[in-house]
Amino acid sequence: MSGQMVVDSPSQLRNIKDFLILYNALTESCFNKCVTNMNYRTLTQIERACVHRCADKFTNANKRFMNEFTKLTPEMIRRRNEDAMEQAQKYEALLQESAPSPTT
Amino acid sequence: MDPQKAQQLAAELEVEMMADMYNRMTNSCHKKCVSSNYSQGTLEKGELVCIDRCVAKYLDIHEQIGKKLTQMSQTDEEMMGKMAQQPGIPQTSLQAP
Q: What is known of its domains (chain B) (predicted)?
């Protein structure tokens, strides 16, 4: 797989890394849920079908997670910035009140 | 970024991901195969056989899912390409590179 990867920029590197971590998490999750029969070395038909369904479900869920996340996170960050600016303005007002006025 | 550095980064990434997969696999197979009875330190025959099979199955699943994901990425890319040709549709890429 590494022969196909072309890393052009740091953000693309992060994207690729996220994708690969997702791949590993998906494998682990579907293995845990689907593999029940330790009597054979190869995957049974039932397990194979389960893994396919599991992979589909996982990726669909992930797409939905990302959609909601990208929808809600900018709003959260905007609110956080507003709160921070409010705090900063309050402190500045306090400082101006308590600072001694210049005398000539 | 020059291609040599890119290739080096890709190789490092692959090693890291292999290590991650190995850790997850040992975790999963330990839970499935090794009893937490700890009445003895050596592995029983059943546990040995289970571990062999567990590793084989895990790697098989890893391979299958890899194929499936590349297939899905390709179909997604084709879809994105088709959508890009239609005017007025916003471009957001939320899937795998």
A: The twin CX3C motif contains 4 conserved Cys residues that form 2 disulfide bonds in the mitochondrial intermembrane space.
